[in-house]
Amino acid sequence: MLEINNLKICYGDMLAVNNISLKIDEGEIVTIVGANGAGKSTILKTISGVHPISAGQIIFQGERIDNIPSHQIVERRLIHVPEARRVFPYMSVWENLLVASQSKAAKVKRSEILKAVFEILPQLYDRKKQLAGSLSGGQQQMLAIGRGLMADPKLIMLDEPSLGLSPLLVMQVFEKIAQINKQKVTVLLVEQNVTRALSMADRGYVLENGSIVMKGKGTELLANEYLRKAYLGM
Fold first, then answer.
1. Which of 47, 90, 108, 229 is most buried when burial is the number of CB atoms within 10 A of its CB?
2. Residue-range domains of the chain with CATH
Protein backbone atom coordinates (compact mmCIF):
# COMPACT_ATOMS: atom_id res chain seq x y z
CA MET A 1 0.00 0.00 0.00
CA LEU A 2 2.79 2.43 0.95
CA GLU A 3 6.38 2.13 -0.20
CA ILE A 4 9.29 4.42 0.63
CA ASN A 5 12.50 4.05 -1.36
CA ASN A 6 15.88 5.56 -0.43
CA LEU A 7 14.31 8.57 1.25
CA LYS A 8 16.48 11.46 2.34
CA ILE A 9 15.08 14.47 4.21
CA CYS A 10 16.99 17.62 5.08
CA TYR A 11 16.37 20.73 7.13
CA GLY A 12 18.60 23.20 5.36
CA ASP A 13 22.07 21.68 5.40
CA MET A 14 21.21 19.20 8.15
CA LEU A 15 20.43 15.65 7.10
CA ALA A 16 17.48 14.51 9.26
CA VAL A 17 16.60 11.21 7.58
CA ASN A 18 19.23 9.26 5.68
CA ASN A 19 18.39 6.87 2.86
CA ILE A 20 15.58 4.89 4.46
CA SER A 21 13.33 2.36 2.76
CA LEU A 22 10.21 0.76 4.19
CA LYS A 23 6.89 -0.67 3.11
CA ILE A 24 3.41 -1.15 4.54
CA ASP A 25 1.00 -3.75 3.19
CA GLU A 26 -2.76 -3.30 3.21
CA GLY A 27 -4.37 -4.16 6.54
CA GLU A 28 -1.16 -4.07 8.57
CA ILE A 29 -0.19 -2.16 11.67
CA VAL A 30 3.40 -1.03 11.16
CA THR A 31 5.29 0.97 13.76
CA ILE A 32 8.37 3.16 13.68
CA VAL A 33 10.03 3.37 17.08
CA GLY A 34 13.07 5.23 18.29
CA ALA A 35 14.33 7.89 20.63
CA ASN A 36 13.11 11.47 20.58
CA GLY A 37 14.76 13.33 17.69
CA ALA A 38 15.47 10.20 15.65
CA GLY A 39 13.43 11.50 12.70
CA LYS A 40 10.15 9.64 13.20
CA SER A 41 7.81 12.65 12.99
CA THR A 42 9.81 14.06 10.08
CA ILE A 43 9.06 10.92 8.07
CA LEU A 44 5.30 11.29 8.63
CA LYS A 45 5.37 15.00 7.77
CA THR A 46 7.17 14.17 4.54
CA ILE A 47 4.79 11.35 3.59
CA SER A 48 1.83 13.72 4.09
CA GLY A 49 3.44 16.45 1.97
CA VAL A 50 4.10 18.92 4.78
CA HIS A 51 7.89 18.70 4.35
CA PRO A 52 9.66 18.20 1.00
CA ILE A 53 11.89 15.23 0.25
CA SER A 54 15.53 15.73 -0.66
CA ALA A 55 15.87 12.43 -2.52
CA GLY A 56 14.02 9.15 -2.98
CA GLN A 57 10.43 8.14 -3.67
CA ILE A 58 7.16 7.83 -1.76
CA ILE A 59 4.62 5.58 -3.47
CA PHE A 60 1.03 5.13 -2.28
CA GLN A 61 -1.10 2.48 -3.97
CA GLY A 62 1.20 2.40 -6.97
CA GLU A 63 1.37 6.19 -7.46
CA ARG A 64 4.20 8.56 -6.55
CA ILE A 65 2.95 11.16 -4.08
CA ASP A 66 6.17 12.94 -3.12
CA ASN A 67 5.58 15.56 -5.80
CA ILE A 68 1.96 16.51 -5.00
CA PRO A 69 0.52 18.88 -2.35
CA SER A 70 -0.94 17.76 0.98
CA HIS A 71 -4.59 18.28 0.05
CA GLN A 72 -4.23 15.90 -2.89
CA ILE A 73 -2.68 13.29 -0.60
CA VAL A 74 -5.71 13.62 1.69
CA GLU A 75 -7.97 13.11 -1.33
CA ARG A 76 -6.20 9.79 -1.85
CA ARG A 77 -7.25 8.88 1.72
CA LEU A 78 -3.79 8.83 3.27
CA ILE A 79 -4.36 10.70 6.54
CA HIS A 80 -1.92 12.10 9.11
CA VAL A 81 -2.88 12.59 12.77
CA PRO A 82 -0.03 14.81 14.00
CA GLU A 83 1.71 14.87 17.35
CA ALA A 84 0.30 17.06 20.16
CA ARG A 85 -3.38 16.59 19.12
CA ARG A 86 -3.77 20.05 17.55
CA VAL A 87 -7.52 20.25 17.88
CA PHE A 88 -9.29 23.53 17.12
CA PRO A 89 -9.82 24.69 20.74
CA TYR A 90 -12.59 27.24 20.13
CA MET A 91 -14.65 24.89 17.99
CA SER A 92 -16.93 22.20 19.37
CA VAL A 93 -16.14 18.51 19.14
CA TRP A 94 -18.82 18.25 16.46
CA GLU A 95 -17.29 21.07 14.42
CA ASN A 96 -13.79 19.59 14.74
CA LEU A 97 -15.09 16.35 13.26
CA LEU A 98 -17.08 17.91 10.44
CA VAL A 99 -14.23 20.14 9.29
CA ALA A 100 -12.13 17.03 8.67
CA SER A 101 -14.55 15.54 6.14
CA GLN A 102 -13.96 17.95 3.27
CA SER A 103 -12.53 15.56 0.71
CA LYS A 104 -14.85 14.37 -2.05
CA ALA A 105 -14.86 10.78 -0.80
CA ALA A 106 -15.56 11.77 2.80
CA LYS A 107 -18.31 14.29 2.00
CA VAL A 108 -20.37 11.69 0.19
CA LYS A 109 -20.32 9.36 3.21
CA ARG A 110 -20.16 11.97 5.99
CA SER A 111 -23.19 10.72 7.96
CA GLU A 112 -22.08 7.11 7.67
CA ILE A 113 -18.51 7.92 8.73
CA LEU A 114 -19.69 10.08 11.63
CA LYS A 115 -21.83 7.22 12.93
CA ALA A 116 -18.83 4.85 12.71
CA VAL A 117 -16.56 7.31 14.52
CA PHE A 118 -19.06 7.66 17.37
CA GLU A 119 -19.31 3.86 17.61
CA ILE A 120 -15.52 3.58 18.00
CA LEU A 121 -15.22 6.71 20.19
CA PRO A 122 -18.54 7.05 22.06
CA GLN A 123 -17.09 9.61 24.48
CA LEU A 124 -16.97 12.08 21.60
CA TYR A 125 -20.71 11.76 21.06
CA ASP A 126 -21.34 12.50 24.74
CA ARG A 127 -19.27 15.71 24.41
CA LYS A 128 -20.15 16.73 20.85
CA LYS A 129 -21.28 20.24 21.87
CA GLN A 130 -18.31 20.86 24.17
CA LEU A 131 -15.46 23.14 23.10
CA ALA A 132 -12.45 21.05 22.13
CA GLY A 133 -10.13 23.22 24.20
CA SER A 134 -12.02 22.32 27.38
CA LEU A 135 -11.47 18.58 26.94
CA SER A 136 -8.90 16.65 28.94
CA GLY A 137 -5.68 15.57 27.25
CA GLY A 138 -6.98 12.05 26.70
CA GLN A 139 -10.27 13.30 25.29
CA GLN A 140 -8.41 15.64 22.92
CA GLN A 141 -6.32 12.70 21.71
CA MET A 142 -9.48 10.72 21.00
CA LEU A 143 -10.86 13.74 19.13
CA ALA A 144 -7.66 14.01 17.07
CA ILE A 145 -7.99 10.34 16.12
CA GLY A 146 -11.71 10.76 15.38
CA ARG A 147 -10.95 13.76 13.19
CA GLY A 148 -8.49 11.64 11.21
CA LEU A 149 -11.13 8.95 10.75
CA MET A 150 -13.60 11.54 9.41
CA ALA A 151 -11.44 11.79 6.28
CA ASP A 152 -12.28 8.13 5.54
CA PRO A 153 -8.68 6.89 5.51
CA LYS A 154 -7.34 3.86 3.73
CA LEU A 155 -4.13 4.40 5.68
CA ILE A 156 -3.92 6.48 8.85
CA MET A 157 -0.61 7.72 10.27
CA LEU A 158 -0.61 8.34 14.01
CA ASP A 159 2.22 10.38 15.53
CA GLU A 160 2.85 9.72 19.25
CA PRO A 161 -0.82 9.15 20.18
CA SER A 162 0.08 8.12 23.75
CA LEU A 163 2.34 11.10 24.50
CA GLY A 164 1.62 12.74 27.85
CA LEU A 165 -1.24 10.42 28.81
CA SER A 166 -1.73 8.41 31.98
CA PRO A 167 -1.14 4.63 31.83
CA LEU A 168 -4.89 3.98 31.80
CA LEU A 169 -5.47 6.38 28.90
CA VAL A 170 -2.47 4.95 27.03
CA MET A 171 -4.11 1.53 27.23
CA GLN A 172 -7.38 2.96 25.94
CA VAL A 173 -5.66 4.70 23.01
CA PHE A 174 -3.96 1.49 21.91
CA GLU A 175 -7.25 -0.40 22.22
CA LYS A 176 -8.84 2.16 19.88
CA ILE A 177 -5.98 1.78 17.39
CA ALA A 178 -6.52 -1.98 17.30
CA GLN A 179 -10.25 -1.41 16.83
CA ILE A 180 -9.62 0.99 13.94
CA ASN A 181 -7.37 -1.55 12.25
CA LYS A 182 -10.12 -4.17 12.52
CA GLN A 183 -12.28 -1.79 10.45
CA LYS A 184 -9.89 -2.46 7.52
CA VAL A 185 -7.85 0.71 8.02
CA THR A 186 -4.09 0.26 7.61
CA VAL A 187 -2.07 1.93 10.37
CA LEU A 188 1.39 3.50 10.43
CA LEU A 189 2.21 4.24 14.06
CA VAL A 190 5.07 6.39 15.35
CA GLU A 191 5.66 5.84 19.07
CA GLN A 192 8.14 6.26 21.91
CA ASN A 193 6.21 3.64 23.90
CA VAL A 194 8.25 0.84 22.39
CA THR A 195 6.70 -2.04 24.31
CA ARG A 196 3.08 -1.26 23.47
CA ALA A 197 3.83 -0.27 19.87
CA LEU A 198 5.79 -3.41 19.01
CA SER A 199 3.39 -5.66 20.94
CA MET A 200 0.51 -4.68 18.68
CA ALA A 201 2.40 -4.18 15.39
CA ASP A 202 2.63 -6.73 12.60
CA ARG A 203 6.05 -5.31 11.74
CA GLY A 204 8.32 -2.61 13.07
CA TYR A 205 11.25 -0.41 12.14
CA VAL A 206 13.77 0.96 14.64
CA LEU A 207 15.07 4.41 13.79
CA GLU A 208 18.31 5.88 15.16
CA ASN A 209 19.75 9.22 14.09
CA GLY A 210 17.69 9.25 10.91
CA SER A 211 18.59 5.72 9.81
CA ILE A 212 16.79 2.38 10.12
CA VAL A 213 19.01 0.11 12.23
CA MET A 214 16.61 -2.80 12.69
CA LYS A 215 13.38 -4.15 11.23
CA GLY A 216 11.20 -7.22 11.58
CA LYS A 217 8.07 -8.62 13.15
CA GLY A 218 6.93 -6.65 16.18
CA THR A 219 7.24 -9.54 18.63
CA GLU A 220 10.68 -10.49 17.29
CA LEU A 221 11.99 -6.95 17.71
CA LEU A 222 10.57 -6.82 21.22
CA ALA A 223 12.63 -9.90 22.10
CA ASN A 224 15.83 -8.49 20.57
CA GLU A 225 18.56 -8.09 23.19
CA TYR A 226 19.98 -4.84 21.79
CA LEU A 227 16.57 -3.20 21.60
CA ARG A 228 15.68 -4.33 25.11
CA LYS A 229 18.86 -2.79 26.51
CA ALA A 230 18.74 0.40 24.44
CA TYR A 231 15.03 1.25 24.76
CA LEU A 232 13.60 -0.78 27.61
CA GLY A 233 16.48 -0.67 30.09
CA MET A 234 16.46 -4.44 30.42
1. 47
2. 2-231 (3.40.50.300)
